[in-house]
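Contributing: when you submit paired examples, paste them exactly as shown. First protein:
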Amino acid sequence: MSAAENKAVLAHAFAETAKGNGRPFVDMMADDVAWTIIGTTSWSRTYTGKALVVRDLLTPLAANFDGPNIVVAERFVAEDDLVVVEARNLSRTKRGEAYTNRYSWTFRFVDGKVADIMEYADTDLIARLLDPLPDQS
């Protein structure tokens, strides 16, 4: 797929996450996707495989929020098989706090699916507002 086609896949997925619908975001991932969250928080690690991403990352993340996880993309930059997305989170935690995280994600596509995700985020906000994940080392 072209850079423009990859960008369009992500534009569609993020148009849906802005409405609280994460299904297209999950659907665009390859079965063997690797998602890395930078930093040293309990959430910071590489999650490998779509099933584990959903079980070990997305499901616990959703459990922290009072309502759907709302993520709004603000910028897309595409080149070759990479698309960088800058986005912000508009969710609220179950404790009533605004989860105003900012992201820069680098997505790498292989055969029309997202194979790798590198997430840069406010790790201090993650550590302060999200329930810690158990150590999986």
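Second protein:
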Amino acid sequence: MKRMLLGAVALLTLGALAPAVAADLPARTYTKAPDMIPVAYDWSGVYVGINGGWGTASRCFDQTAPLIGTDGCHNTSGAFAGGQAGYRWQAASWVFGFEALGDWASLKGSSVSLLAPANIDRSRIDAFGLFTGQVGYAWNTALLYFKGGAAVVADRNDILSGGAILATSSGDNRWGGTVGGGIEFSFAPNWSAAFEYNHLFIATNNTNFTNPVGGAVVSSDRIHGDADLVSVHVNYRWGGPVVAKY
């Protein structure tokens, strides 16, 4: 009987202490799942695109035969359009890459000959290509980049007299260099648009002008001058941004 009374007292004591012990325990804290944080845009991958714009070029004629001297300079200007392809890879915020670009062009201009005022010197740039390396810095979906490399220009020149072609030169592919830069924005997954400027250092070439009828050489000139190009580019890239995870 005594043991039963002691057991009952023990159970009542534990029952009275349980709420007090529970009250002393720290309250359970509840945290919601972390929000999904998007990963920064990644510019890495292969891309292709189209471009178009406006360009100007200076063309200076220095005659070496039959006379010797400066024959004058003029500016050519006109539109151009074409395409580009390249590859970029991103390390932290730095972006590196290379690109090949080829455009059809219609840059034309002329000036009166200083050595033979009855004649007109005319120049045309029909196409050009750029082969460049790139380095840039990205702010998520915005990219500022600089580029430099080799350039080639398809150049044609004529001498006019009385509105007719007195002498013409075969088309020249003039090699040189280029430097430029641009700013590019991604406006949709894998799509981006860029505004770009390039300066072309066009090599000086010795050009023979021949009569289109008999083929005789009428004059020889050293032709030189640089070009400036402003364009808009639209690119599609393979290798989109990394999908963010919890």
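If you have annotations for the second protein, write them as plain sentences, like these:
Residues 1-14 have pLDDT under 50 and may be disordered.
Helices lie at 2-24.
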